[in-house]
Model the fold of this input.
Amino acid sequence: MDIIQSFMDKEGGSIISELTSQGLSAEQVNGFLPEALATLVHSLKSANFADLFGAASSGGLAKLLDSVDITALAARTGVDSSNARTGLKALLPPLLAFVKDNQGLFGEKTSGLTSAFKSLHH
Done:
């Protein structure tokens, strides 16, 4: 099954609510969400999880965000860069939790996600 569709089936309602509470309009969310999720999933698939999420790497999530061209994402989705960054930050915790709970979708590369997930909640 498609990772993004699986994620949206499980978390879509709460994600949409979170993004609208962050200041995006419903129209902006509809344009932003699919592209932002595709971008994050691509970044996760191509990431070196040991480097990004290793126990010694407290900045793993920041590195993941830094790997995204936020200006280009904003231009493609019709939101400003600030909203794009805020939206990505809102998407990361539930997306990482989903990946952690569905590790088979990403294979062995997710071994470092547990420590990254824990760091989100401290």
The longest helix spans residues 26-46. The chain has a mean pLDDT of 78.
